Fold this protein.
Amino acid sequence: MRFVTVRSKTNDAALHPAECAMALDPAITRGRIHRLDQLDDGTTVLLYELRGDLDGAKRVLESSSSVLRWEVSGSERGFAYVHSRPTEPATTLLTLLRANDVILDTPVEYTSEGSLRVTLVGAEDSLHRVTAAIADIIEVELERTGTYQPQLEQLSATLTKRQERILSLAVERGYYDVPRRTTQRELATELDVSESTISEHFQKIEAAILPSFAL
């Protein structure tokens, strides 16, 4: 199973018309999208984070004819549940995913510039078709691709890019297999660094991720 992560190059990749209005309001910040589902009737349901003027967000959702139902919890930081008619690009993209058996991994992130960062999971040929079709709908930039490892994807958020690369290579080469299929010396040679440097990186990597498993 493979994954591909793409980022929209513009900040107008809104998922429903009311969100377009929220994106233009500097007092409202959209956070991560924790659920995004397309229903059989073509409408969508979303659960995502909001920060800032949540009363203003409520007013936007209340006044939008595209929003069928909504709830917002919290004051300055909270969650929004939105059942709405999506924008045409969003409808096209979600239909494309369903047709190609590609999964939208969550949470979906908004960057600090307001653009969307999306990870898609599926068979390699399906991902090629979907990413090519997406590029015809909105302008995107390919950020990452590889073998999908959900736990590693979640933990890598605590690592630097360099640490993430070393950890990914270590997993791929079998450093954490029992018995091990590679050594720190072999990884150091492949990365063209000293064995002491690799050892130091592993100490920092393990210090960052092992607390996640503490009881």
About this structure: The mean pLDDT is 85. The beta strands are 2-8, 28-38, 44-52, 67-74, 77-84, 103-110, 116-122, 140-147.
